[in-house]
Amino acid sequence: MELFDYKCHQVKDEVGLMLYQQNYQELSGNLLTLDYLKKTMVFHVLKNDKVYAGFSLNVLEWSPLRYFSYLNEYVKSEILIQPSKPLKEQDFLEITSIYKQGRYKKDEMLFYFYLFAKAYINAKRLKKPLILGGSIVREVKLIQKEVLDVVLYHGLIDPEKIKGDTPKLFEIYCCETTDLLFNAGKEAFEKYFLQVFGSKKWH
Predict the structure, then answer these.
(1) Domain range spanning residue 160?
(2) Using CA atoms in the order 173, 72, 81, 123, what is the torsion angle rounded to 10 degrees?
(3) Residue 68 resides in a domain
(4) N or C: which end of the chain has fewer CB within 10 A?
């Protein structure tokens, strides 16, 4: 999938997975095992053929959902009980392990375009009615809060589960797969097109 000087491709070879592992660890401080990455769908996003971002997609049939693994069983069972209908872990396609190094709004916009497009395509292919995301990184949370517009969890995360000495605020979001493209398009229009066109920061 290629747009302008940007492209996104799935990483399947071990060298590419090790690069993803290294980039993610350097930016987040957390280590993803190669065994885990081999079970998921891993993507690199490139600008001028240079990797500047990455993300992975996961479903329960491949590996336990990463964001739910940060919660104890009681909390997880409670957030899956929604007023409208109970949620099941096997209904989710999870967007996870996000990292990005882009300097400009265009880098960020194209990264999220690829991320949400790949999530939608694979959720439809795998017949997953829900998209799951989560983060302790503020800028990622701000994007996901608009696109994945149902908040499942908002609270502290045990510092033993992540890099750091103090508890950090952690959020988990979701949305219906059928709503993903509309929500992402609306967010892109409001966040990027209205604010960025004509700006000197658009590179």
Answers:
(1) 55-196
(2) 40
(3) yes
(4) C
Q: For tokens 């747009």, what's the residue?
A: 3
What's the structural domain count of the chain?
1
Evaluate whether residue 154 is within a structural domain: yes
Which CATH number covers residue 63?
3.40.630
Q: Which residue has the tokens 């952690």?
A: 170
DSSP the chain: -EETTEEEEEE-SHHHHHHHHHHHHHHHS-PPPHHHHHHSEEEEEEETTEEEEEEEEEETTTS--TTGGGS-HHHHHHHTB-SSSB--GGGEEEEEEEEE---SHHHHHHHHHHHHHHHHHHHHHTT--EEEEEESSHHHHHHHHHHS-EEEEEEEE-GGGSSSSS-EEEEEEEEEHHHHHHHHHHHHIIIIIHHHTT-TT--
Task: List the chain pLDDT tens, one digit each, 203 residues.
Answer: 667 789 999 999 999 999 999 999 998 888 999 999 999 999 999 999 999 999 999 999 999 999 999 888 988 999 998 777 889 999 999 999 999 986 677 888 889 999 999 999 999 999 999 999 998 766 666 777 789 999 899 887 765 655 555 567 788 999 999 999 999 888 877 766 655 554 544 34
83 inside domain: yes
Residue 36 lies in a domain: no
